[in-house]
Amino acid sequence: MSTGEQSRDAEFAEYVASRGGWLRKVAYLLCSDWHRADDLVQETITKLYTNWHRAGQATSRDAYARVVLVNTFLAEQRSPWWRRRAEEPASGEFGAIEAPPDVAAAVDLRRALTGLPPRQRATVVLRYYCDLTVEQTAEALRCSSGNVKSQTSRGLDALRRSLGVNRLGGVEA
Predict the structure, then answer these.
(1) Residues 65, 158: Cα–Cα separation, whole Å
(2) Contact present, 129 and 122 (Cβ < 8 Å)
(3) β-strand partners of 17
(4) In whole angstroms, what is the distance from residue 111 CA to residue 139 CA?
(5) Could you tell me the fold of the domain covering 102-166?
(6) DSSP 106-125
(7) Please, where in the chain does CATH 1.10.1740.10 lie?
(8) Is the pTM higher than 0.90?
(9) Is 91 helix (H, G, I), strand (E, B) or coil?
């Protein structure tokens, strides 16, 4: 192995070691299953490795990795072999993510997020968890800004309905 390849591999290993946990959290928010999130991250890491030179040319490696992850998730949703299963997470699985003060609300939100169609879920996760702008989200999903806005609006409306919250933040009776 040449010195350049060793340097490339070391750089890649360092990136994965430092950002792997973050990728796993984003993957979990997209699919709501830790095992599937691990599979998505593994596939994403494999794709990143084979295209590491492109990731190095991107303005942000994190943005490049996020796009690969979201595209992997969306491609899986479209594949004909994919069958959706409604599964409750096993007890103790929430331990990998820092527990928020209101665990019941977090569980309800994750469950409601699972009910969104894949594109809406991806849009909401990218906008509100990854804190991307409309334009950055559109670039990540390879769609128009208007599409991001409409998907976000529909996704938030569906989350509000699912959680029984009105537009002003109050609980509906």
Answers:
(1) 28
(2) no
(3) none
(4) 27
(5) Arc Repressor Mutant, subunit A (1.10.10)
(6) HHHHHHHHHTS-HHHHHHHI
(7) 1-79
(8) no
(9) coil
